[in-house]
Amino acid sequence: MTQGIKPSQFIYTHGPGSILEGINGSRIILSTGHGLFHSKSPLTGKRHTYVIIDDRMSKNLLDGNTIYKLPVNAEEEDFPTDSPIYKTNPFPLWSLCPNANRHKNGHYVLYRGRSYFDQKNSCPECDYPGGGKQAVRYVMACPNGHLDEINWDYLVHGKVENHSDYFIYKNPSGGIKDIEIECPKCGKNENFGSVYLNPHGRPCTGRFPEREEHRGKEKRPMNCSERMTIVHKSSANLRIPWIKTLISIKSGLTDLDHIFQKPELKQRLAGIIISKVPITLELLGNVLDSLVEEKDMTLSQKNFILSKGWEILKPIIENTTKKFQPMSYSELLLDEFISLMKGSKDGIPIQKTNAVKTYCEMIPHLNKTFECENGLKFKICPVTKLSTVSVQKGYSRQPVIDDSPNPKPPTLVSYEEDLGEMFRGADNKDHTWFPGVLNHGEGLFIRLDTEDGWHPDLVGDASSKWMSSYNSPNYQGFHLRDPDQQHPDELHPVFVWWHTLSHLLIRAIGEDAGFSSASVRERVYVETDGKRARGGILLYATQSGADGSMGGLLALAPYFDRMLEIALDNLRTCSGDPLCFDKKFEPGSLNGACCFGCTMNSETSCEYRNYWLDRHVLLNNAPCTCAGKNSG
Fold it and tell me: What are the distances in angstroms from CA 4 to CA 35, 72, 90, 434?
């Protein structure tokens, strides 16, 4: 039985170690080496064709490792539409037989109803195979990322007794607190609710089921000092993906830039630079010929490169061979922001040519400016072409939410720790392969058009408290988008101002133009310089087939005043008031006044998990209604 999943779903929601619900029970996605590029897959021999080349992402954020895209059935001759590309294992294997009237004790029976070979074991009391179709809803997990089935023997006896291969499941009222699990041999029982609600759990087994082979042996090394607690297998906090997204804005990358990022070509060009031999068009042709001969480049790619003039190729070669300067994630975001600010004035690329395809494009004469009643000016800058690379670095599991004043940071389960995610690269070295997705689309960059975008001083008690937290050395860095950044930019009141406005605008776009909030993503920028700060937001749609991918989002630029008016109306009132409005931001908090009735959006839309929002910051510094002043 197969189940369809989009590559974007795999990156943003699932991935190795996540549990999928299927018709015949839940299954766990295996590591790439066991589920996708395994020894029996025809994809393994051509896995290099799925590599996504993006040096800014791989060198700065992935330690030089590899990004790959998921193959899809529609593009693979070896896999018909209903043929599985990615293998999974059934998980959990325990089942519940609900045929109480067939059982001698009149209760449900808990037993191991599934196997790795998809055999349906019959219920041990009624011998009815259909009983195995009701899967167990709970698993056990620890904060270090380990996951396992519930050991029902240990739960009932407090140790492993091996009295029976099944247990009696008593639930007279339907509530968790009333569930009793009983051993049919010795009669000992345990209340499931008390174990479920116990935050201390049981010793961790150290199991990573996604790192086990397809239909392979279960591995429990018992090498973890944490405790495992029971959690619902569909709980959002069971597996939280860690995703990094970069936008291809810098210099307006073209299709030529992407070809020149091929490792084999870069290594040849770097060797020529080291030997201090000047690169000419003739020498480049010789290099390309050797790459084609060694099958590291296609003939069509070579001909495409040589069809361009030297005035186009020379700056790309210089950019490809220049010394690499490492940047942190926060520095990469600031680099994006500065490029967008320049692009809003000069365009991207500055000198447009029809000779190559551009992955990012901004055309200044399409900009629209709106002046509000209080003199604040917004500049709306359409980004007519936009490309993003999103990579899932790993995940964390938070089976118990720590709401203490100093919570322990979540542990990243990085794919670099999994040998099943490691493959030999073009440099003959082992590299970790991270799942990623490359999307194209469009966006709207929104900035202030006064004082070069620098924000006026924010007033109000809420802004003062946010600024106090921003200046405090005791901020909780692990909640930030880049835990290693020098300053907690997300705590700056200008960031909170723009982030809150961004969420309201996304809601207004959905209300007025019919976009779903999940189809529009955001990126919030802030730059500080001493006591002043400036920021902006990029609202974009890049998912294949999503709303706005054919100009719909760009067409909203002339109507920003209407969107802003709707946003401010939604800011002033909330269905959750007065509870929502009365909430105040305090140091150590993640939010001020906000809830799903006013400012919180879909998690697929907000890359900050609905943190750093506060109605009061925006209300005390509201831009007021745009007074119908619109200039091109």
Answer: 15, 10, 16, 21
Predicted local confidence at residue 627, as pLDDT: 41
- Is the preceding peptide bond at 172 cis, omega within 30 degrees of 0? no
Residue 21 burial (C-beta neighbours within 10 Å; 0-12, 13-18, 19+): exposed
Nearest partner of 246 among 152, 133, 384, 386, judged by Cα: 386
* C-alpha torsion sign, points 425, 428, 430, 431: negative
DSSP one-letter string for 547-564: TTTTTTTGGGGGGHHHHH
202-203 β-sheet, strand order: 147-148, 138-141, 227-232, 202-203
pLDDT of residue 630: 44
Cβ atoms < 10 Å from Cβ of 497: 25
Alpha-carbon separation of residue 128 from 100, 116, 118, 119, 296 (angstroms): 11, 20, 16, 13, 57
Residue-wise pLDDT tens digits, 216-227? 899 999 999 999
Residue type, 610: N
pTM: 0.84
Distance CA 95, CA 92 (A): 8
Run of H or E residues at 513: helix 493-513
Pair 19, 234: CB distance under 8 Å: yes
Q: Is 516 helix (H, G, I), strand (E, B) or coil?
A: coil
Cα–Cα distance list, 376 to 168, 236, 370, 449, 615 (Å)? 69, 40, 8, 8, 19
CA–CA separation, 226 and 176 (whole Å): 25
